[in-house]
Specification:
It is an enzyme of class 5 (isomerase). Its EC number is 5.4.99.-. By secondary structure, the chain is α+β, with helices and mostly antiparallel strands. The strands form three sheets. Strands 5, 6, 7, 8, 11, 12, 13, 14 and 15 form a nine-stranded mixed beta sheet that branches.
Length: about 240
């Protein structure tokens, strides 16, 4: 790999910026100063240092974010995005959210630069489970649960079966708390499904995507690296069909 690409991939600046740094003598390979941006490095074997700091090569990055309400699931937007929550030392131009959560929805969002993993997780053929916790205005019933399990229709389209669990019903306040497991990701799907049975979602949080759970100790707006165990669970090929 070219030295300038190696350093740009690791977030040390744009290709133009790292070329200038190399020419100014800021970069060494295996202890020897290198001033050619075309110099070839073996990214897993050669020791590259920038201004005396050892640069460890890592191709793919995976972060688990607890998205707060009011933030857009996008890379760029006039409004605040999920990437605006990242510290300068963790931010990379190639990071993006895997899928979207509505602006007012909280919870688990995977941020990565691994396009292949994102494609597998979002592919309609894979049916990767997504689990949500919701607070609802209205009384959710066993009839609703059966309807979701059979697959309700939205705008003339039959949805895949969804698993509704009724956690609590407050008959006096006429409210319910539920979890809902989906196997697809239609636009505003949870809100529209609940609305289709005559109730309204007042609060929504995603708590799981595939084998990745939202950690209880991760505060709103905080993020952390995905662990090797979590990554292995995410990377496991879901069954097609």
């Amino acid at each position: 790999m070219r030295l300038d690409k190696f350093l740009a991939d690791m977030g040390y600046g744009s290709r133009k910026e790292v070329k200038q740094a190399i020419k100014k003598g800021f970069v060494a390979v295996n202890g020897q100063q290198v001033k050619s941006d075309k110099f070839q490095v073996a990214e897993q074997e050669d020791q590259v240092s920038f201004a005396g700091e050892l640069v460890r090569y890592q191709k793919d990055f995976y972060y688990l974010l607890n998205k707060p309400a009011g933030v857009i699931s996008a890379t760029t937007d006039p409004e605040k995005t999920v990437l605006d929550l990242f510290a300068a030392e963790d931010y990379r131009r190639d990071l993006f959210p895997v899928g979207r959560l509505d602006k007012d929805t909280e919870g688990l969002l995977l941020i990565t630069n691994d396009g292949q993993l994102a494609h597998r997780l979002l592919s309609p053929k894979k049916h990767v489970e997504k689990e949500y916790y919701a607070e609802v205005r209205g009384i959710m019933t066993e009839e609703d649960r059966q309807q979701f399990l059979q697959g309700i229709e939205l705008d003339g389209e039959a949805l895949m079966p969804a698993q509704l669990t009724i956690l609590k019903v407050d008959e006096q306040a006429e409210t319910s708390t539920i979890t809902l497991i989906l196997h697809e990701g239609k636009f505003h799907q949870v809100k529209r499904m609940v609305q289709a049975v005559g109730k309204e979602v007042t609060y929504l949080k995603r708590i799981r995507m595939g084998g990745l759970q939202l950690p209880k100790d991760l505060a709103l707006g905080e993020y952390r690296l995905v662990t090797e165990k979590e990554l292995a669970q995410l990377s496991a090929e879901p069954a097609e069909g």
